[in-house]
Design goal:
Two copies of one chain form a homodimer. With 338 residues, chain A is of the alpha/beta class. Chain A has two domains: 31-79 and 164-329, HAD superfamily/HAD-like (Rossmann fold, 3-Layer(aba) Sandwich); 82-152, no CATH class. The first copy, chain A, is 42% helix and 15% strand. Chain A has 14 helices and seven strands. The longest helix of chain A has 26 residues, at 2-27. The radius of gyration of chain A is 22 Å and the shape is globular. The termini of chain A are far apart. The interface between A and B is large, with 58 and 58 residues.
Chain lengths: 338, 338
């Protein structure tokens, strides 16, 4: 009993300390890298609206679900999805054990960096490379391999670690939503177990709040040790129509905020924001990050092979989705300068 | 700015109120329905150990993952899994639109309540009933149907609503873990979308922390309305070897507490508690709820068709899993008496 009272006292000291630290923070601008303008105001206004108790627009905290795409929305995705770079780097690292790869496709093109030729062979070659680099190993071995790569690999044009190419304004938005008791999920076409390696340390999004393209897996006791083995079959392609399915499967509740940057996010934006019927008056926010800044990042959209933004751009005005212009809306791009 | 300062002030009042309310609660017994004894002490000791900062056994809050089976662990499961009762009730409700069911198996046996004959026809018949009652409809229609059933259905021997047949000591354990910043998940062989209908209101476990047997689903804009349709294919059988796979898929982190009641939980208990190697010294807790109380609930185990507890019981002593004797360890069974 004495111990519990002491614990209670310690608890109260921690809470008072917490108060002292958070009060000034609450008064500070939650989105310092977002320039003044309609988009910034719309985001702040939405969050204020749904967190204001006693109003028709109030959304209880457990139902404040926000979902964000990863590639091109939370971090860069050019000139190649970073996970594809990981895949190609793994092929190079594994090549010494496979001398036949030098003369066999799709490995030959992967090793020589001839991506046009690689892609021209169709999806079969890419799937073979993915299978070799992403399956057959244990869950731990895969995670370690990704972590090692993130520690050492550098982006070809910026020279930055890939995890430094995250968008400072989106980090601020995630923090702001967390401060307002939102549950923030990543819903990515990329691999769920690839993103989980860095999502907690980089975005403050824990592994259980990452949804992504998922492989089948098997459990076994291997020499008495509990082991998860990654299988070469896909359980979910978490892209396009797969994103609402991933949300249903992993979250089980419709989000009230969705953010993306490409047509791969179209259905997620629709699922989140279109009212189900005339009684469905809950506020909903959709936003699209438009890559307009070729000086500080990359500029692409309707014609791009990666991150193509066409249909979702067409729908945005009618649906009321915010079109975030990276050049005009963001004062900072990455957390540290190249 | 004035608005933000006012918000900060309101925030501080809320926090002080929170303090005043929680201090007495911290001194109270967190597990009043658990009788004094080795199992109670082991649970309290484990949670105190992993939450004590500055010790070798300390586990940071984000990594405090606890997983519990549902049927037979958080609520009763006799004489039939409650979801099977739902299925049979749905068949009865749908029968007037299908006059041919009166003379066609497996419907005939389902409608007459001849479960022995139903089961004797093999898994095919059961799967057909599951398909008819659980698939083809939208996500919302399925959830509404389950919610309506839970409101009206009563257990055949206790006369209680099924959601009243939850175990008070396990509710206290979930609350105690939440108070200690654990993330508590359900990992069930039952249907993920069935459990999600009541998990938040009944257990305080939100939908995104429910893992269970999962169907494939599809997204479409149906007459312009975003719609998830449940498909008659299984994405995950979240039972036995499927439970660690479900944990990997949905949580992406090994739990430190696992609780079950049958051989269906064996692999989840192994995955949670067996050290990976000699460096893996993190504390782990496994517990098995043993149904020993035929007066207040049901008594079954090694020979039972539902909730068979045999191999896991054999492994428990060597693995150090707590065997919770419901009759001896629990002073209360259900939150309200029948």
């Amino acid at each position: 009993m004495i111990k519990q009272l002491l614990a209670a006292q310690r608890h109260s000291i921690v809470l008072i300390g917490f108060l002292a630290i958070t009060l000034p923070a609450l008064a500070a601008d939650p989105l310092p890298s977002w320039k003044e303008g309609a988009n910034r105001e719309a985001i702040l206004g939405f969050v204020e609206k749904v967190t204001k108790e006693g109003t028709a627009d109030y959304v209880p905290a457990p139902e404040r679900v926000a979902v964000f795409d990863n590639d091109g929305t939370l971090w860069s995705e050019q000139p190649l999805y970073f996970q594809v770079v990981y895949m190609l780097d793994r092929i190079k690292a594994m090549a010494p054990d496979h001398p036949e790869w030098k003369t066999t496709e799709p490995y030959k093109s992967a090793l020589s960096g001839d991506l046009n030729h690689l892609v021209s062979q169709g999806m079969g070659g890419l799937m073979e490379l993915l299978t070799v680099t992403h399956t057959g190993m244990t869950a731990e071995d895969f995670s370690s391999s990704v972590a090692d790569w993130l520690d050492t690999a550098r982006h070809p044009t910026t020279g930055l670690p890939y995890t430094a190419m995250i968008f400072q304004p989106m980090l601020e938005l995630i923090d702001y939503l967390h401060d307002n008791e939102f549950k923030v999920f990543i819903v990515s076409g990329g691999g769920i177990d690839f993103i989980r390696v860095f999502s907690e340390s980089v975005y403050d999004i824990p592994p259980e709040r990452v949804v992504g393209t998922t492989l089948e897996a098997e459990f076994e006791l291997r020499d008495g040790i509990p082991t998860i083995v990654r299988k070469p079959e896909i359980s979910l392609v978490d892209d396009k129509v797969g994103k609402p399915v991933g949300i249903y499967r992993h979250i089980g509740r419709r989000p009230i905020i969705a953010g993306g940057n490409s047509d791969g996010d179209l259905q997620m934006l629709q699922y989140t924001t279109i009212p189900r019927d005339s009684n469905d008056t809950r506020p909903r926010l959709g936003l699209i990050v438009h890559h307009t800044d070729k000086e500080r990042e990359f500029a692409y959209g309707r014609e791009s092979h990666i991150g193509k933004l066409d249909k979702a751009m067409d729908e945005a005005p009618d649906r009321g989705w915010l079109l975030i212009d990276m050049k005009d809306d963001w004062s900072t791009m990455y957390p540290t300068k190249p």
